[in-house]
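User: Sequence for Energy transducer TonB below. Tokens please.
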Amino acid sequence: MTAISANAQANNAIPIPHQLYRIPCLILGALAVTVLILLLMERLVHNDMLAPPEQGPHKINTVVMDPPGPPEILPPPFVRPEPVEPPPEMPPITQTIAKNVDFTIDLTPPSHSEKISHNHSGPTDSTAIPIVRIAPDYPNRMATRGIEGYVDLIFDISTAGVPTNIRVTESEPEGAFDKAAIRALARWKYRPKQVDGYPVTQTGQQTRIRFDLSD
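Assistant: Structure tokens for Energy transducer TonB:
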């Protein structure tokens, strides 16, 4: 019993020194790791604080550019024209032309008497003589209504044989045929009045232009 107890105590006493050596080893290992970390951090900080090495002057390459060309002219932007509405259709115009229009022109002698020289030794005097008479245009409105009438006119004959100073003295119906009669008389042609062989103006000539419709 004594031998067995001694062996048991010897076996229990052996692990105690191993535990004592293990603790210092752990402490030394932790210190070594800490020292290595500190050294590494110091080196990193030292490298960051070092100034970058000085570099020589930068070399600038010479760039040769082509001369600028003419400016590009862009066309104006396209603007779509607004649609144009077509003009409204005009109703057809019908015109009725009167046929078989008959007109009568009354020529009255001059209001004053003229003395005609019969001396054959020199030039003789003469009154105005009609050469060309233009028929008047029958107004379409009056023709379609079957309206007839007349216009009395007074006028002068110039030295060129042209009716001038045309005035209306009477018309029936009033104003219905005045313009047509004046236009027609203005196109007439006369041989002017002669006095001592020279043309002179003859005043106060009268005429009547009738507007009659015949079947």
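The chain has two domains: 2-49, 101-213.
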